[in-house]
Amino acid sequence: MKVLFIGGSGIISSACPNLAVEKGIELFHLNRGTSSTIRPVPAEVRQLTADVRNFQETSKILSGYQFDVVVDWISFVPEHLESNLKLLRGKAQQYVFISSASAYQTPPAKLPVTEETPLENPFWEYSRNKIACESFLKSQAANYGMQYTIVRPSHTYDKTLLPFDEGYTIIDRMLKGKPVVVPGDGTSIWTLTNHRDFAKGLVGILNHPKAMNEVFHITSDEWLTWNQIYQMLGNAFGVEPKLVHIPTDIIARYLPEYGPGLLGDKMHSMIFDNRKIKALVPEFQCEIPFESGVREIAAWYKSGHANTLVDERLNKIYDQMLEDFATLAE
Question: pTM here?
Answer without folding.
Answer: 0.95
